[in-house]
Amino acid sequence: MDYNTAIALNPNYVKAYNNRGLILLQTNEELDKAIEDFKHARALSEGKDKEKMLGFIEWAEARKAMNMKNWDGFRERMNEAREIFGQINDPLSISINAFIQFSYLDEKLDNALKEEKFVSLRTETTFVIFCITCS
After folding, report:
1. What does each C-alpha distance from 127 to 34, 91, 116 come to in angstroms?
2. Which residues of 52-91 are buried (b: 16+ CB within 10 A; e: fewer)?
3. What's the pLDDT tens digit per position in 6-27?
4. In CATH, what number is assigned to the domain containing residue 39?
């Protein structure tokens, strides 16, 4: 089902906002829209579902930080999400640990790539200067 159509037909259909937000979160697209969907679903929800939406909001904020290569911000937001899911005994709290641990590897890879680009650029610049000096 197209969630946009479902929401147009029933603006109070919580699952449509939740599921559309999850798709946007999983595909790492339009995270601000995902956050708005989770906020809307949260306003229409009660109990554990209301708190779960807060966890997804934190998760989406974490993804935004990750996209900006703000690894500390990512881990901070994911820890918030893990705590929220843990408070309602949602198994997602356990899964989030893996995302946090992988973020350290991602950060190391990013740093290594930055250093490699710098070394590559420096080597090319040295070669160009060497060639100009030789002519």
Report:
1. 48, 55, 16
2. bbbbbbbbbbbbbbbeeeebeebbebbebbbebbeebebe
3. 999 999 999 999 999 999 999 9
4. 1.25.40.10
> Containing domain of residue 48, as a range?
3-107
8 A C-beta contact, residue 89 and residue 82? no
Whether 23 is in a domain gets the answer: yes
3-state secondary structure of 88: coil
Give the separation between CA 100 and CA 35, rounded to whole angstroms. 20
- Listed in sequence order, the residues at least 6 apart from 19 whose beta carbon sits closer than 8 Å to its beta carbon are 3
**Whole-prediction pTM:** 0.82
Instruction: Name the domain count of the chain.
Output: 1
- Look at residue 117 in the predicted model and tell me its pLDDT: 57
Interval 37-75: pLDDT, tens? 999 999 999 999 999 999 999 999 999 999 999 999 999
Sequence-distant (≥ 6) Cβ neighbours of residue 7 within 8 angstroms: 13, 16, 17, 20
